[in-house]
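Now for our target.
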Amino acid sequence: MLEDLKNERLSKLKKIKEAGIDPYPSRTKRTSTIGEALKKFGALLKARKKVFVAGRIIALRDQGGVIFADIRDESGTVQAVFKKDTLKNFAFLQSVLDRGDFISVGGPLFLTKKGQQSIEVREAQILGKSINPLPTEWYGIEETETRLRQRYLDLLLNEEVKEIFRKKAIFWNEFRNLMLAEGFLEVEASVLEATPGGAEAEPFKTHHNALDTDFYLRISLELPLKKLLVGGFEKVFEIGRIFRNEGIDKEHLQDYTQLEFYWAYHDYNDMMALTEKMYKSVIKKTIGSLVTTYGGNKINWAKKWKKVDYVELFKSANKLDPCFASRDILFEKARELKLNPEANAGKGRLIDLIFKKTVRPTLVEPCFLINPPVEIEPLAKRSPKNPAQVERFQIMAGGTELGKGFSELNDPLDQRARFEEQMKLRAAGDMEAQMIDEDFLTALEYGMPPAAGFGISERLFAVLMDKPVRETVIFPLMRPKE
């Protein structure tokens, strides 16, 4: 059936070409968008001025001597009325037009008997013949995989999906504008790295032909930005793509956009004050409100965010002190919770696994989760009050992490020791443990000022939209069709 419809359209395309008409011209007579024409409808109606608009035919109703077509561009939809007695090529257009075609129409505006704003077509130009028939707007595309694979149809048929990506542009633009207003310099580092670092994640590997060398796609923006602090910049940020070769779920993708910024001569307390102010501004600008819903829970971002201690929450939920519990005790606790810990999992990985199961889902209202054990954050500065913990915070809301920052470790000897511990974990089979980055360590040895850093991914936007993160990526990576 679908193939028959396609063949019918191909026959119409052939007929257009045989008539000496280019079905895909490069120019059009369009004088205004549909939205502009409708906004000035009263004045244009009074002047009886000919208007040219262009767009896609989304509905076509042929009534013999009259054809009604709804034409849509990004700004709006207007009804075009083709009349046999006023349009010279009416019969030809009647024989070749289909729903989905792009067309330009020109003529005066008028009101129908029912009061519908319309354009009386005196001229028409085919701008792009549609070969594949569009799904109907009434049924759309219900299967998620098809919607994401053919996102262009999803956008075409669902205005609310299109609105998500308008809001996403506002989301990132507001973060960028706030960074610039605070005096941060925007930079752009390389996506390819000799040593991936700045996060615990398995990287993607690629080969550079000209250098005949394997490189990795970056898993974080962190280390290059901190090298800029060594080089004398004091406030830097990047909004860029990062890549992590991990599983797909409601909150994770393999490639996504992240903002990271670094602020010399400040610590994580300063960063918490700045990020709370920024989040509230971005959410208000993007959503229009500071109250959102995620997973059935209402989240009020307007309140003052509390600081809650990671270790105290862990102890309360699990009757264990994560700083001093042995790796074996934590492993047994993870098994008791049926978390299926990997046999080679280190202490930090086990603490994180248990915390995500027993504590994280309870953190619904926005808060700062502070001071976790040192084992789970190899790049953060130790707490002067308790060296077993680090000066790190996570912004938590809706039972998930929505941003992370810390007082940056600038002691090159401590940093090397922690990298070496990570390499032991890699040797034991943990492919997400961090590698030693000798170039970064060399930079630290020249001296890096005390600083705070922060990173936020597009997971926050997905939570604001109350959608799985894949639904908020315009063209998510999909498994190729067989």
Q: What stands out?
A: Residues 153-472 form a domain with the BirA Bifunctional Protein; domain 2 fold (CATH 3.30.930.10). The chain has two domains: 2-134, 153-472. The radius of gyration is 29 Å. The longest strand covers residues 51-62.
